[in-house]
Amino acid sequence: KLASENGVSTEGFEYFDPQDEAFIEAYVDDYIAKNEGKRKKPTLKKLTADPVRCGMFLLKNGDVDCVAAGKEYSTGDVIMEAMQGVGLQPGVRSASSLGIADIPGFEGPQGQMLGIADCAVTAQPDAEALAGIAISSADTVRDLLGWEPRVAMLAFSTTGSAKHETVDVVIEAVQKVHELRPDIKCDGEFQLDSAIIPQVAAHKVKRESEVAGKANVLIFPNLHAGNIGVKLIQIFGHANAYGPVLQGFTKPVCDFSRSAPVDEMLGNVAMLVIRAAAAKK
Known about the structure:
alpha/beta, Rossmann fold, two-stranded parallel ribbon, 8 strands, elongated
């Protein structure tokens, strides 16, 4: 009705209404028949009672290609439903987020653009979680933007210039990425300047590196650094930061801020659809 009132064509759309009892009854019966009764009907009907939970269930079953939510739900609720509904990718222990920063005056491998993570979800990742963030971020920029990811793991130390237990976490995370996904160019630990400025990398990094001085994805060691970092480049560098994009799930999921304007929601949906299309290739 709303689309009709605003002159928007809905031709080709399919609708799944979790409030339509007849539809839910038929869908659940069909699911049970196809899956040889792996779940009981009361459990399945409970899964479809909530709109976001229903969306995740449809996504898991392949009836939809991606899910966008959050306008009426908190980020924590969306993440929880995605964790329970579709789960995490192999090698990824926690969900995370990636932002795309467009920084005036910066000249890197992708011009003014940098991928930055995690700035919104995981507060204090251990080495395994940090490795998962790096892996998810590499996959996201490849699928979303077509980049060849060069992932720098950031710290206050560059290749052993300082010693601290928090630096050890970053070093261990780099090793885990190499073990889990040797196809990803990932290196560190690097200070920010060593990661993105070739002249500094040439001076500070005394070994071969495919990432030092030419990183296009930056992984912060914790949410403090990520949150402060993105606000610094926005305020003082006049950067635009797009996202954050939720990542790490087995299928594409997007979260809106509850205060998001329509144009921001459309931008996030556009990125989500691109990721979903890439995932089907």
